[in-house]
Write a structure and sequence with these properties.
about 350 residues, 27 strands
Length: about 350
């Protein structure tokens, strides 16, 4: 095999724990995040991923295909991809990831379907050895995925949940759950790490970042997928999930019970990159029954806190994902409740002015 090196993320010898709660200038930035809400004309079935391209929102919608939404009006512009089971078509799109030159859609056909930046079909292959639990990270020659890879794809005996998937189909596990953990418990924890918590972001130098929502641990990788830094978020309101109270899901009533449990936990969202040296994380915090309020944490790549616990007024939801960000704008997509087809809102959050956010 070409790719033989496996990095065990949790086996790094030293993890840097950032000290302090509020870092200067966080004290001066409190209440400085302003959010502008836009309700989508057509609610999404269930928001799991979203990608921003200028004034367009690309939204994989399980019942409607891959939608392109105008962020100025909330109206659908078109359905980008044909729904179907033929080559180059998608059914039930679940996850969407986009790089600079291509995008990948993973749907309920369990195919990875690739398109160029103009949505012309490139290739597809079946996900017989891997499935995504959250938004994949797309590079020119590979994907970074958190999800499930079959055991024979790994070098150990566990189930990979963070792995590199090359275009030739080869899979390189970066982290596994131990083989001794029951599969039901393994899948439950992978599911928690996907959908609306945790995730990946690409760095300007070709590296990438992963945040583990179970512990608010942040892992920074270089452009050769080598772990270079590890540290933890310092938001004082973050609490590790209470797995003992996590319910099983077998039917709609179970999904409601799971949502009730999940929304009572601290939910760290997908990281976003600001400029060359800053990372931002939206943290969901329980706020009544079946909804959360949200705060913004900003760190340097080294783990040094820049601003912790900045409130994002008005952003409350039963389901919320981080879509994208540029130097001054963070885009969040959420639904009023956990239920499918609940009213769907896009918030464009104006980020505070601080050193490092003005970089081109």
């Amino acid at each position: 095999m070409r790719h033989t090196l496996r990095m065990m993320v949790h086996c790094v010898g030293a993890v840097l724990l950032c000290a302090g709660v509020l870092a200067s200038p966080a004290d001066k930035l409190e209440n400085s995040c302003r959010a502008q809400a836009l309700n989508l004309e057509k609610p999404a079935y269930m928001v799991v991923d979203a990608v921003v391209r200028g004034d367009r929102l690309l939204l994989p919608d399980y019942t409607s295909g891959l939608r392109e939404v105008d962020l100025r009006t909330g109206k659908d512009l078109r359905s980008i991809l044909p729904m179907g089971t033929q080559r180059g078509e998608v059914t039930g799109p679940q996850h969407l990831g986009c790089g600079s030159d291509r995008c990948v859609v993973f749907g309920d056909r369990y195919f990875w379907v690739f398109f160029d930046s103009k949505w012309r079909f490139l290739l597809e292959y079946p996900g017989m050895r891997s499935t995504a639990s959250g938004q994949p990270l797309v590079f020119a020659d590979r994907l970074v995925v958190y999800g499930v890879a079959s055991q024979d794809a790994g070098l150990g005996g566990g189930t990979p949940y963070l792995f590199i998937q090359y275009d030739d189909g080869e899979i390189l596990p970066l982290q596994e759950y131990p083989a001794s953990m029951p599969m039901a418990e393994t899948i439950k924890r992978i599911h928690f790490q996907g959908i609306i918590t945790g995730g990946l972001a690409a760095l300007p130098d070709g590296g990438w970042v992963f945040v583990d929502p179970r512990s608010y641990s942040v892992y920074v990788f270089d452009n050769r997928d080598r772990l270079t830094k590890a540290w933890r978020g310092t938001n004082p309101r973050f609490r590790a999930p209470n797995w003992a109270a996590s319910p099983a899901v077998h039917d709609p009533s179970g999904r409601e019970a799971y949502s009730r449990w999940q929304l009572s936990q601290s939910l760290v969202k997908r990281p976003v990159v600001l400029g060359d040296d800053l990372l931002a994380f939206v943290v969901g915090l329980p706020d009544g029954t079946l909804k959360q309020r949200h705060e913004l944490d900003i760190y340097r790549l080294s783990g040094e806190p820049v601003a912790i616990g900045l409130p994002i007024p008005g952003v409350t939801a039963g389901r919320l994902v981080t879509a994208d960000a540029d130097n001054r704008r963070l885009v969040l997509v959420g639904q009023k409740t956990w239920e499918p087809s609940a009213p769907t809102t896009v918030w464009q959050v104006e980020l505070p002015e601080m050193e490092g956010l003005s970089q081109p």
